[in-house]
Amino acid sequence: MSNLLGRHRAVMPSWLSLYYEQPIEIVSGRGRRVTDSDGRTYLDFFAGILTTMLGYDVPEVREAVERQLRTGVAHTSTLYLIRSQVELAEQIAALSGIADAKVFFTNSGTEANETALLLATNARRSDQVLALRNSYHGRSYGAMAVTGNRGWKNSSLSPVNVHYLHGTDRDRFPHLSDEEFLAFCADDLRQVLATATATDVACLIAEPVQGVGGFTVAPDGLLARYREILDEHGILLVSDEVQTGWGRTGEHFWGIQAHGVTPDVMTFAKGLGNGFAIGGVVADGALMDALPANGISTFGGNPVATAAAKATLDYLLAHDLQANARRLGRLLVDGLRTAVEKLPVVGDVRGRGLMLAVDLVDPDGGAPSPALAARVLEEAKRRGLLIGKGGLHGHTLRMAPPLTLTEDEATEGLGILVDS
Ligand code: PLP
């Protein structure tokens, strides 16, 4: 174990920061648990950063992958048709609620957002883009450009002109009522549009619940209010559903449905392949067709990944895991509110479905405390629970267990977290 850690430091770049002071080497997984090389088992409340949404070693997914591998075709490229790819695209298009939708597969959320930006800027012949403050959209040049927090970018250069909007910074305006805050945000957008350096703006890209931002929920109705104004200008709305898709938020299948609007474009990834690399874009067909037809991605829509994704989506729908996320999300957020919200080290507890966050603060003065978050993360791991951290100052504990979580496991995880 210590050898592996030493080797990691020798062969991987120093900027690839380690999450844990003493990272564990995971060797196997089953259900909602993983085992490390020392034989210790952990309940996983972060699900490979929200990817293993059905948990580990799911027979239906494994069998679908094995079936594809037994055909001898691990990959063909999108030059040819693959049944699971076509069926998956049909299913996602139908689930999207977007009229005449078409789907383009990628390997990650970053590429999905890059494709969405390409679609929107191409369709509107404009490099002006709106994004929310403290958003995170990925690692590539464009996706990073629309990321709204300097701390998560590794370049300040940008291929697009980005204007950041208020909306998920509700806590900075405690003197405003909910309605006043929405009016303030609408005003903010109108101001930005009035002063944008070009007359046309291509799109607004937004996460309905900011993931890396610390599971910050966009106030309900915000995106509807924005949509009204965007429509006056023909500006496209892109919903980044990379974290919020597939029912994780409990109340809705897509996070943006909480706002009662249908976007023009949605991007997705993370949980779809239950661990296999797949992402994509679902958009209005005319918009998709307007993109010059040279859009082949060598690995996007890989047949093993689409087989895994089709099996994952079928399982998710057959077992109504959205309802499970809603029920256990409530149980966990209520449990956290009761057990930890009043502790002097806790600044805030929030959640939507199985996206739950606790902000840790210095008990003297209430400043965000990333050091405390790191300590709790280590302590939870020592007690057998894996969680995530994040947020604006790295002071937010993030919990996003697989959607197959059971009530017993929810209670067990909650107990460990509270003790930690
Ligand atoms: N969009 C959101 C909302 C994300 O949270 C992430 C990753 O965390 C991405 C995009 C980028 O996805 P990926 O890491 O698969 O490239």
UniProtKB/TrEMBL annotation:
<dbReference type="InterPro" id="IPR015422">
    <property type="entry name" value="PyrdxlP-dep_Trfase_small"/>
</dbReference>
<comment type="subunit">
    <text>Homotetramer.</text>
</comment>
<keyword id="KW-0808">Transferase</keyword>
<dbReference type="InterPro" id="IPR015424">
    <property type="entry name" value="PyrdxlP-dep_Trfase"/>
</dbReference>
<comment type="similarity">
    <text>Belongs to the class-III pyridoxal-phosphate-dependent aminotransferase family.</text>
</comment>
<keyword id="KW-0663">Pyridoxal phosphate</keyword>
<keyword id="KW-0032">Aminotransferase</keyword>
<dbReference type="GO" id="GO:0008483">
    <property type="term" value="F:transaminase activity"/>
</dbReference>
<dbReference type="InterPro" id="IPR005814">
    <property type="entry name" value="Aminotrans_3"/>
</dbReference>
<dbReference type="InterPro" id="IPR015421">
    <property type="entry name" value="PyrdxlP-dep_Trfase_major"/>
</dbReference>
<protein>
    <recommendedName>
        <fullName>alanine--glyoxylate transaminase</fullName>
        <ecNumber>2.6.1.44</ecNumber>
    </recommendedName>
</protein>
<dbReference type="Pfam" id="PF00202">
    <property type="entry name" value="Aminotran_3"/>
</dbReference>
